[in-house]
Amino acid sequence: MVKCEGVELNKIKAVLFDLHGTLAFVKNPVSDVELSEYLFSRGYEVSPQQLRAAWFFVSMIDYPKHGYRNWRSYFSRILWRLKVKVDKETLDAIAKLLESKPYQLYPDAAEAVIKAKQYGFKTAIVTTIAYFQFKKAIQPIKRFLDFVMTGYKAKCDKSNPKMYKKVLEILNVKPDETIMIGDNIPIDIILPKKLGIKTMLLDRERKDVKCPQADFIVNDLKEAIENIIG
């Protein structure tokens, strides 16, 4: 564990968790190449890069505006962005394929969230990711979370400070009473740090990451929570 000198956590009242790469992951996710090859096999000319671009647009812009409740409606929007109309059988097959690769919690995730709650901290997930994609994965910890902030609930993507500000408002805590745990340096560390939130960088792969903006650098969530509760 790496800790910046002079950082104290005795005022912390809330713990914010990133989702992807922090609490949960997708094992062997469906790739844009795999989806592209399937679409080509069905007679639809959609390249991997086109899919990647449209997917990103829908994730960061369309989902926060409109919200989608399942893979069928989500991927339909991606195809709409590409001006590609596919038959029902093709769309259903893609939705089924995406559903077969769900999010799952990391082994240390449930214990970390539960322990934070048991010690009296307010807890929340902060992510742009569509809720339907990880809803089932977080069921074991749902009752230990005070709030789950998604792009749709915030009406913006996570790189917009508004998302963090809304979470603070909902939890009724000040920035210096809050700590964010995540693995994405620009979005989970630098941005909340600018807002006055304490930050903890999660380096699961033990790459010995250097990040002067992080108040702490830890290798797992057990270590993260132990440092917060003291």
List keywords for this structure.
43% helix, 230 residues, 10 helices, elongated, single chain, 15% strand, two-stranded antiparallel sheet, Rossmann fold
Biggest β-sheet: strands ordered side by side in the sheet: 1-9-8-7-2-5-6
User: How would a textbook summarize the main sheet?
Assistant: 7 strands, mixed
Helix content: 40-55%
* Average pLDDT rating: 95
**What's the Cα radius of gyration?**
19 Å
Low-confidence spans: none
**Structural domain tally:** 2
- The helix-strand sequence is EEEHHHHEHEHEHHEHEEH
Q: Structural class, from secondary structure content? A: alpha/beta
Just give the CATH class of the largest domain: Alpha Beta
CATH topology description of the largest domain = Rossmann fold
Task: Give the CATH architecture of the largest domain.
Answer: 3-Layer(aba) Sandwich
CATH superfamily label of the largest domain? HAD superfamily/HAD-like
Q: Which band does the percent of strand residues land in?
A: 5-15%
Number of strands: 9
Overall 3D shape: elongated
- Termini separation comes to 13 Å
Q: Tell me the number of helical segments per DSSP (H or I, 4 or more residues long).
A: 10
